[in-house]
Structure formats: C-alpha cells, structure tokens
Amino acid sequence: MISAQSFGENGKMKDYHHTGPVEYRFSPYTFNGGTVLAVAGEDFAIVASDTRLSEGYSIHSRDSPKCYKLTDTTVIGCSGFHGDCLTLTKIIDARLKMYKHSNNKMMTSGAIAAMLSTILYGRRFFPYYVYNIIGGLDEHGKGAVYSFDPVGSYQRDTYKAGGSASAMLQPLLDNQIGFKNMTGVEHVPLSKDKAVQLVKDVFISAAERDVYTGDALQICLITKEGVKKEMITLRRD
Amino acid sequence: MALEDFCSFRNNPHLWTPASLLLPLQNPASSTPGIPEHHHSGRRRSELSNRDDGPPLRLTLPPTSAARRLMPTVRRPFPLTHGTTTLGFVFQGGVIAAADTRASAGGLVACPEVHKIIPVHSHLVVTSSGSGADCVLWARALEREIRLYRLRHGRVLSVRGTAKLLAFMLHPFKGTDVCVALTLCGWDQGPNGAREGPKVIYVCSDGARLQGELFSVGSGSPYAYGILDGGLRWTLSREEAFSLAREAVFRATHRDAYSGNNVDLVYITEKGWSRREREDLKEEYYRRKEEIGKIVEERCRKTD
C-alpha cells in the first residue's frame, strides 16, 4: 500500500509477507526505485541513470530521468524517494543562484558537493531519502565524482553506483574501472568512448537483474564543451 | 572562553538554552530548510571581526518529549554507515592512531576507502567511529571552532580543552539518533597551562569524556584490545608501536565482519602528525595464510 508502513506484532517493519496482525501507519517515505551511476575520467565525467519511476508493484512512468543538470560542469543524479529528489534539486538550484548573485561566479563541483553535504545534514533527524551522486569537472578540468549517503556523508571517488541496483553494479565497476581483484592486468586509463560503452553495458545488465531498473537509460557526458545528453532504450518489462 | 563563543552566550545570555545551538535566533518559523536565513532579509553580512556569527549549526531539532507524542519520530527506511575498528594509544615516542577503512550500511559495504582519521590541526587528529555522516560533520565543526579559538585567543587550545568543547557541542544531541565516538589523539605543546606531551581522549555522543593511555572504539574493538593489552608498553620503539597497531587492526578486521579493507596509521609527535601509507590488508592475509600453510605442512610431515 502506498504511503504506509506496516508493522508486525513485535513492532518491526514488514514488507510483503503478512502473517498475523499487521498495523498500518502513515509513512512520509516511499521507495521509487531507479539506479544512478557516475564515472570520472581524465578530462570528462559521465552521469547516467535509468528513467523508470516505480512504486511497489506498479510503474508510474517510463520517462522520468534522474540526472539533473546543475551547471555547465556539474550534473547530479538522485535516486530514492522521488518527492525528496525534486525538493532537493529545487533547493540546490536556488542556492546556486544565490551564490552566483552574491559571488559573481558559478559554484565549482567541489563547492556544490560540500554545500549538499550541509543541506543533507540539516535534516539529520528527518532525512531526505535520496542517494545522491555528483559528477563533473573540477577547477583543473579533471573529472570528479562525489558520492553521498542520505544524511550528508560524502567523499570524492573515481566511480560510484547508487540506487536500487547499486549493490550489483558497484562490484562490476570495481573490477572494470578500478582493476580490483585482478592480477597481471595493465592499468589503462579510461577513454571517453570506452567509458560510455561500459556504462551502457552495465545498465543493460542491471535491467536484467533488478526489477526497479529499466525502460531507458539517459547518459550525460560532461566535458569542457558542456553537457551532452544521450538516450538509449533498455528492457521495458 | 571557547564555550561561551560557541554557544553565543556572551551576546545573548537570556536566550541561551541547549536548543539555541540549533535554531536560528530570529524567526525560526520562517526559515526554509536549506536556505540560510540572512538571504531572506537581503542584508549583506557585516565585515566586523567580532560580529555574532550566530549558532554554528542550523539543524531542525528532533521533536522534544512533549512534541514527540504529537509527532512521532519518523522511522528511517535506510541504514546509515556504521561499523569500524579504531584505536589510539600513547607511548614514549608519541601517539599512534590507527583505523580500518570500511564504511558499512546494513550488510553492504558503502565505501571501502573511507578516511577515519581526520586531522584537526597540526598536532591533533581525530579517529571517528559511529555514523559516518555524523563523524565527518562533527570533526569539521570541531576544526572550525579550534581555528576560531586560535584566531581569537592567539594560541592553540589544549587537547583536554578541545575534548571538553566537543563534549559540550554534542550534549544537546544526547538521546537522539546522533552516534559519534571520537578519539582525540594529540600532542600538547607548552607553554600552555596544560601539561606538555602526548594525549589520548575519548569523547562520545552519550556524554562520556575520558582521558587515558589506550582506547579502541567500534565493533572490532574487543579483538583489537586483545592484541593491544598483550603488547602495549610505554617503552616501545617507534617501529614496534607501528607493528602493534597494525596487528591489532588486522586481527580485528579478520574477525569482525564490519571492519576491513585497509589500515590507516597516523603518528603524532611534538613536531606534528604524519601519516603512514595506507596498507591493503588483503596482501597481509594471504602472506600469513602461506606461512600458516607451511607450518601445518611441517607438522603433518613430522607426525607422519
């Protein structure tokens, strides 16, 4: 049931398995699914997300991308509870505008990441149920990825997957981009085309195994020329 | 005084309550979450050096016990990052702070390469355990307060003073969800009023503030204590202390599911702190396995 959390006899949360008396209580949160991925290269960054918006057993929309462009050098991917994603991106946009007007320059990726961390922690006791990943170019023009937890803990990474299929995608990225758990391999730096192809392959795999991921894939490629978007269809079942 | 400055007590003593640390002093109802309130009125910040910055933390308070009946606390549908092994001890050559680098959220490793040893100033580091976001934020807030103290009073606050300040910063959040257990490892430089030398002080969000010679915090701490209690002496050499700390974290990561990946080691002397290169424990595990394999082989050969 939407907007409700069910509790069993011992007070613990119950998801789908209902035996015995169940108490329904209003929950301000719900899980809308979706996967986000970001990869940082030498002079580029990629932020990709699927476009399915689901809730429980239903699909609300097949065309709801989770990447939001913040500046010409930064894109944020938000997955989790869609209501909080929308509000959070509105707040970030407003803060960006205020910074631009008071400081006469655009915020850098690192600054946006630090600001987002404090915005999220401001709601430590009623958190935004959003898993954020910021991808962009830093002040030196190098690719940067910042990954967050829902209450604002963050750090800079080379690659990160977030959302419903993150547990499946992260080990694959560790192996293919981070060359982890492999011996005798040459660590070649990732080229732009190879990275885009890898992201496509990885999402196709995620759509196979995760019910909340699918429909279409939106890839935002960030280079010094700006942000370029690309749409690829995925499984719609 | 550092506490007065932090709590804005000097300027508004009548408004000082633990809650004043959190809500903005004027118009709490009109402030939108996320938007700092000086933008509402359109005023520019003044350039005065002794201006009242206001409370350094603007957080929406959790419901108080009276309000809790009307608005029950919302249950979080996701787990936060937890689980760790950190340790700090003093010996004749200084202070050692060591920690693993795994951040786990429920059963998933959220990040295998976290920095749990955070520098505050040149002679003080903080090892963090508990909830990841809380530790990073409180370490940052502490760094800010120490810097402000140094600018206002012209000297670095002692480790004991820092611990007291941190304990008072955490006090309003006692009983809430905030889960922070920090070990301050530092070196006090004289002349300060404080006794010069190495210090390890443990501060946690429950309100504990303890000075000691050895602390280990986290889910892996029982295993680390076993190694440390067996090997720790004041007269250890630098290399022996390094290998003891490393061994303690290694054993804890081996037995505790929520600790793992790499071991970070930071060494503090009167000259300041210096970090040893992060070491991947996977190699160490395989090296030991080989050695044990050889010993077992020997034993089997002898008994045959």
Short summary:
Chain A is built from four helices and 15 strands.
Query: How many β-strands of chain B, per DSSP?
Result: 14
The fraction of residues assigned to DSSP E strands of chain B is: 15-25%
The residue fraction in helices of chain B comes out at 25-40%
Order of helices and strands of chain B: HHHEEEEEEEHHEEEEHHEEEH
State the low-pLDDT regions of chain A, or none: none
Main interface by residue count: A-B, 34 and 35 residues
Please outline the major beta sheet of chain A: 5 strands, antiparallel
Inertia-based shape of chain A: globular
The unreliable regions of chain B are: 1-31, 37-56, 65-71
Question: Given the C-alpha coordinates, what overall shape of chain B results?
Answer: globular
Distance between the termini of chain A: 22 Å
Mean pLDDT across every amino acid position of chain B: 78
Number of helical segments of chain A?
Answer: 4
DSSP helix fraction of chain A: 25-40%
The DSSP helix count of chain B reads 8
The radius of gyration computed from the alpha-carbon positions of chain A, rounded to a whole number of angstroms, is 19 Å
